[in-house]
Design a protein that fits this description.
alpha/beta; 10 helices; 6 strands; 15% strand; binds adenosine-5'-triphosphate
């Protein structure tokens, strides 16, 4: 039975809204891949949460297409439609369960997250099961208090038996929110997103209004 499953020993999982995907996401994943010897990084754009539609999260198929274009030149990067196909909210625990069905029992899972997300892990559905099923690789983010991140990592280790490691690289002061605002106000986003993503944003008139 297990022979039918995808054999891979260390899988990185980069989940996000990716609205749009930017160089921060790509750099973090690439540095994590090398530092933690990951065989592959799976980018998983979220479905469109119904409650977010009101304030204009870009439809999931467009976020998926941008993500696909952004990662295509890296042979270690792959995209998964797992959450997009479901639409609505998909919890990390459900995604992890799905991935465990696809990959071999020997596969180790690593969630790649930013420092802001680390502070939310405790509030995730079945947080303890999630962190027992995968390690957390954390990239500090500007605006996050490093000592708070370290305290949170320690707390997750102690209270939930989590494996939390920090990824080492330069601070990346880029966010999807900032990129959307820049497009809205006519400011350049060149070099903040890959060229194909920039082109996609303009040709599909994304982020023109703040809706
Ligand atoms: P938004 O500004 O819309 O909230 P975002 O830039 O945070 O978006 P997401 O798609 O929400 O992007 O992020 C996916 C994951 O990548 C999250 O865990 C987030 O913390 C992490 N991340 C995004 N940008 C950075 C960055 N510059 N440094 C470190 N982590 C980042």
């Amino acid at each position: 039975m297990n022979n039918e499953k995808t054999q891979l020993s260390r899988l990185g999982i980069a989940g996000g809204t990716f609205d749009p995907i930017h160089i921060g996401h790509l750099i973090i994943a690439e540095i994590a891949r090398q530092e933690f010897n990951l065989d592959k990084i799976l980018f998983i754009p979220t479905g469109t949460p119904p409650h977010k539609m009101g304030y204009g999260v870009t439809p999931s198929y467009q976020r998926y297409e941008m993500t696909k274009a952004a990662i295509m030149d890296n042979p270690y990067f792959e995209i998964s439609a797992l959450e997009v196909e479901r639409e609505g909210i998909t919890y990390s625990i459900d995604t992890l369960k799905e991935l465990k069905k696809i990959y071999s029992d020997k596969t180790e899972f690593f969630f790649i997250i930013g420092g802001d997300t680390l502070l939310e892990v405790r509030t995730w559905k079945d947080a303890e099961k999630v962190v027992k099923g995968c390690s957390l690789l954390v990239y500090s983010r500007p605006g996050c208090d490093k000592s708070r991140e370290e305290a949170e990592a320690e707390l997750l280790r102690r209270n939930m038996g989590a494996s939390v490691y920090f990824i080492h690289g330069p601070m990346l002061d880029v966010s999807s929110t900032d990129i959307r605002q820049r497009v809205m106000t006519g400011k350049t986003i060149r070099y903040m997103v890959p060229p194909m993503v920039e082109e996609y944003i303009y040709s599909n008139s994304l982020y023109r209004s703040g809706s």
